[in-house]
Each structure stands twice: as structure tokens, then as C-alpha cells.
Amino acid sequence: MRGLFGELSQAVSIQDVGSLPAGIHPVHQACLSGLVIEPGMAEVVPHAWDGPPGLLDRYREVAGNTPGLVAAINGTFFGTQGVLGQLVIDRKRPRSIRQMPASFSRCFFAILAGPSGTRWVLGETAVHGDPLCQAEFFTSSRFNRPLQAGECLEHLVGGGGWIVRDGRDVHMEAYGRQKFRFRKADQDSRHTVVAMDRKNRLYLLVAETGNNLERVSAVLRDPAAFESISDAIFFDGGSSSVLIANGKYLVAPLYLVDKARYSALFVRTPRAEGNVTP
After folding, report:
1. What DSSP line would sit under 127-153, residue for residue?
2. Kindly report the CA angle at 152 between 119 and 55, in degrees rounded to 5?
3. CA 203 distance to own-chain centroid
4. Which of 34, 41, 89, 247 lies at a CB distance of 3.0 to 4.6 Å from 205, suitable for a disulfide?
5. What is the rounded distance in angstroms from the CA atom of residue 26 to the CA atom of residue 3?
6. Spatial contact of 210 and 197, defined as CB atoms under 8 Å apart
7. Residue 243 near residue 71, CB atoms below 8 Å
């Protein structure tokens, strides 16, 4: 049944979403579809909202007040009461969204701000709550790029697991050390994938249903598919994985109903006064 709906969702996906700003490109390789963003060409920031609607409706609500909004992808896992991970937006934890992080390490996407501007990184941490916005976060976390003097945490979406780290397949850490115990029926469900390559390009991708993490890892590390992926993590999966570009579904909902909730990553063109990802 999931495979059938997967085929239907691909059939209704809008592949031609129109022109995108310079430095943001659609990508489709094997089981992965999404966007690749060149360093310095866009701001990627988390967004949080309480419950319904789905991501496309929320995107459209926000677009009128957010100049340059280009794309969005669903964020971390969620339960019926909130997100199963960490959230930091504008150096603060959003109090309107209940966060239920685990006590063991989970992966994150973060924006760090420093004297040279802002940059995106991936990493892993067991820190949650207010210490995320304190020095403990930097001393107790792992990052896929060296830290720079004077940096602070601007934004963070956490709660996922590793797929690739430093070019190596580490997807089994999700099942072992990071305690993602997927049911057999869910092992090859959709997943949101966030990756970086050795040129610091950012990839926002959806892995289609029917592909487990081992398969996703193999595609990400295949030089014929992606040039030089160094690190990749996954977030939520199943029917909540959607990707929007120019206000349309680049990857449509799996069951034809947008079930993305609570958190997302928004992509917008840089503000004139902003510094982004040197």
C-alpha cells in the first residue's frame, strides 16, 4: 500500500517549479530528490509552528511576510504533542513548541554566527534545553567542521541520526548508538536528508519510500550521483516528508495529505544587510 501511494505521490509532484534564484538548484539522483544550495547564496533557517496546517499551507501563510522565501523542507521527528528533538531559533528555544529530546546523542543541523558571518554545519549532541544556548553546547557536541573563534549558536534543528560522516557509511549508528529502533515496516520509509559536501554546499533532500538507510548512504557516497558528499543526517520520515519550492511541491506528500508538523527548514534569498555562509 505504501509503495502504491509512493507512486501516486511522485505522479502528482510538480517537477517544474519554475526558475530558482542563482545558487539554488534542483537535484534528482536515484532515490533522492531535492535542492542543492551553494555557500553564500541563501539563508537556511528553522521555522516552528504549533500543530496544523501542513507545511505547504504554513509556507504560504509565512511567505507574505517573508521576502525572498524560496523553499522549505520538513524538520525533525514529531509526536502528537511536539517535536522529538531540539529547536533553537534566533538564539532562543521557542517556548510555544514542546520539545521532547532524548537523553542520548542525536544529530542536528545548525547555523553558527561568528566574526566572519554565518555558516551551516551538521553535528551531534546530547545537550538539550537551555544549555543549547550556552557554552556547554560547544564543549559537549560534535561538529562536521572545525569551530572558529567567537562563534555562537544562531539556529538549530536536532533529533536525527547519521547516514554519512566524513565520507564513510555510518548508518548503522542510527540503529545502535543513536537508538533509532525502526519497525521493519518503517526501515525503508521516506526520510528527510540534510547533507553537506566538501565544497560546503548544502543538500536538502527526500529519500523516496522503498529505500533503507543503507541504500541512501550508498547513493550519497556514489561519485556518479553526488560529487563529494562528506556528511549526511536524516530527520523525519514517512508521510511527513515533503519539499516545497516556489510555493509548490517539489516532493509531494506520500499519502496525498500534507502531514508535516511543528518544524521545518526555510530557504530564503539573503537580506541586503545579512551575511550568509562565507
Report:
1. --SGGGGSHHHHHS-EESS---TT-EE
2. 60
3. 9
4. 34
5. 24
6. no
7. yes
**What would the mean pLDDT of 151-162 be, rounded to a whole number?**
94
50 DSSP 8-state letter:
S
The DSSP-derived string for 67-134 is: TTEEEEEE-S-B-SSSBSS-EEBTTB--TTS-B---SS-EEEEEEEEETTEEEEEEEEE---SGGGGS
User: According to the model, what pLDDT value does residue 278 have?
Assistant: 44
CA distance 171 to 163: 4
Does this model's pTM top 0.70? My answer is yes
pLDDT score recorded for residue 18? 81
Alpha-carbon distance of 120 to 176, in angstroms, equals 27
Name the 3-class secondary structure at 161.
strand
Alpha-carbon distance of 94 to 189, in angstroms, equals 29
Q: How far, in Å, CA of 161 to CA of 212, rounded?
A: 13
Average per-residue pLDDT for the chain: 87
Of 267, 261, 262, the closest CA to residue 204 belongs to 267
Binned at pLDDT 50, 70 and 90, residue 80 comes out as confident
* Phi, psi of 183, rounded to the nearest 5 degrees: -65, 155
Strand partners, 107: 124, 160
Q: How far is CA 120 from the centre of its chain?
A: 11
Contacts of 21 (CB under 8 A, 6+ apart): 41, 42, 68, 70, 269
CB 261 within 8 A of CB 52: yes
Rounded-to-integer distance, Cα 216 and Cα 204, Å: 14
